[in-house]
């Protein structure tokens, strides 16, 4: 795996989206060509959900309003449930979950350190943006997994995430602080490049950047479109 956190805020050229007013046919990529093996997929996905749980738990502890704490804690609980579901898949294979996650621990913890914001509201947006992008990504990758494990994981990762509760908290904070919206919009844009590096690191690529980018651009374009909708829901520009 590449060490995507060793350089501070690396420059990443993101796929260009077509204008929202135009509807173009969706190009599908053969996921079997870029899929990681099953156990690395499970190990990385499991550890990412565990980090999401820990991030949201810390944010819940810092939030002052009890209603906000409850909504953020509920989102943390959903991340933990997803983690436990992926761990169950690892055990079903007869593998040890800790061993499966260990190769990804340093990189994911480094990534988590990068996305800590200046305050709990920025870190909450980090959880929303990175969690949403990576859930979407691993759901799409699940279509390339063997047997019936893919549909099970896609269903698990696409289940309730508490996203609406997180959106409610952030909308309330933005409404109460006129300057917060522009700061969060800028922070959200900084998060996307680092998160897509995490996604890219999970793929089996040829090393030919131009060829690889052409093959995976449809996946990343869909991810960015979904991210834009989440930012729209907050009234922020992506």
UniProtKB/TrEMBL annotation:
InterPro entries: Ferritin-like, Ferritin_actino. Pfam families: MiaE_2. Residues 41-199 form the Ferritin-like domain. This is Ferritin-like domain-containing protein. The lineage of its organism: Bacteria, Bacillati, Actinomycetota, Actinomycetes, Micrococcales.
């Amino acid at each position: 795996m590449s060490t995507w956190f060793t350089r501070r805020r690396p420059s990443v050229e993101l796929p260009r989206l077509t204008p929202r007013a135009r509807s173009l046919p969706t190009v599908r990529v053969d996921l079997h060509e870029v899929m990681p093996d099953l156990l690395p997929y499970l190990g990385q996905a499991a550890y990412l959900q565990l980090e999401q749980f820990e991030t949201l738990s810390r944010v819940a502890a810092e939030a002052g309003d009890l209603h906000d704490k409850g909504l953020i804690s509920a989102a943390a609980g959903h991340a933990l449930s997803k983690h436990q579901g992926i761990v169950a898949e690892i055990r079903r294979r007869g593998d040890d979950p800790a061993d499966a996650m260990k190769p990804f621990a340093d990189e994911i913890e480094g990534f988590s350190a990068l996305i800590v914001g200046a305050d709990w509201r920025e870190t909450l947006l980090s959880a929303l943006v990175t969690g949403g992008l990576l859930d979407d990504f691993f759901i799409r990758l699940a279509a390339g997994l063997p047997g019936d494990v893919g549909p099970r994981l896609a269903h698990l990762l696409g289940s309730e995430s508490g996203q609406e509760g997180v959106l409610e908290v952030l909308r309330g904070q933005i409404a109460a602080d006129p300057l917060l919206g522009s700061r969060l919009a800028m922070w959200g844009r900084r998060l996307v490049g680092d998160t897509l590096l995490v996604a890219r690191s999970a793929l089996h690529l040829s090393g030919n950047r131009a060829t690889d980018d052409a093959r995976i651009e449809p996946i990343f374009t869909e991810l960015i479109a979904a991210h834009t909708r989440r930012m729209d829901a907050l009234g922020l520009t992506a």
